[in-house]
Protein: Ethylbenzene dehydrogenase
Amino acid sequence: MRRLFATVALTLPVCLYASGAFAEEEKRVPLKPIDVHAVKVAAAPVLDAAVVDGVWKTAPATEVKAQKGINFKDGQGNTTGTIQAAYDAKTIWLRVVYDDPTLSVRRMPYVKQADGSWKKLVDPDDKGGDNNKYYEDKTALIWNIDHSIFGFDEKFGCQASCHAGEPGKPYGNKYTEDEGELGDIWHMKYVRGGFNGQADNQYLDSTRFDAAKFPDAGRKSDASAAGNPGGYADIKLVEGKPEFMSKDAKPANKGGTYWLKAEDKVAFDDSKFVPGDEVSSILVAPFTGDRGVIKVSAKWAEGKWTIVFERPLTTASKFDVQFADLSKVYGFGIAFFDNAQVRHAQVREPLHLIFDK
Structure:
């Protein structure tokens, strides 16, 4: 029997819904979905967020308002943006623009201390997966695969899979209510792939949170290529020092980067650094296999992020939304993260992608 949603005021932060009485949920006024129209193009747009001509001059720009995040310029965690979409016989593109006052890439670096030791910067207020001070900017879309997530398309958008107040995760967990409900996540994490032209292709299922077995609850990554996983991994401290550094030996805060490409890593040489220098704590390689099918161009300039997503209309993975029937409407949600691990500003309304002929 389906587990149903309880009443929670729509003005509360993200991760609103938990199981409960359907009669109470029905008392709320459903949010009106927002349509996003994809225009058909004869020539593929250039995958470059700096390009504003071509289809992006004429494609309808749907305005959205995202709410209840953290760190955005209005002090309330709100921001505004636009979404455009285009497609051809094989590919879909989405261009997302939104306000963000700062470029955030200082993701938990190691810092050399006055006594020569190394320490990772951490958010002192983080009570569990909730870093809002030393993180990165991100953007995430969730697609309702085969309309399987109950209430997603009609009323709740991605809030249908958010769950607050669970032990160990102060901002809640992400999972669908019932087995068989699946979402496709396009997750642009700038430090862990966005800078390199990729979004992390992930998915959402009904797995509940378990601190030891499933700390990310229903959120999972698509399969990587066998023998070549790619992706990202934490750089460990070995005998009190970071295990790797960039071969150019540039501190991240002095012309280097807050990510370390796998091909640039060398053994750490502590003599290259002085107190106050920062180095990356994350090792990054291109996503591979199903996990690597989403290309992006992401650029921040003058208080705005522009992100262009590119993906084949159809893929071989059951964990991807398949845009196989262009006469159908595809439900999705979108969220923006300003230097935040999970406290994102979200568009509350369900979004409907419509392919124009």
In short: The first helix runs from residue 22 to 25.
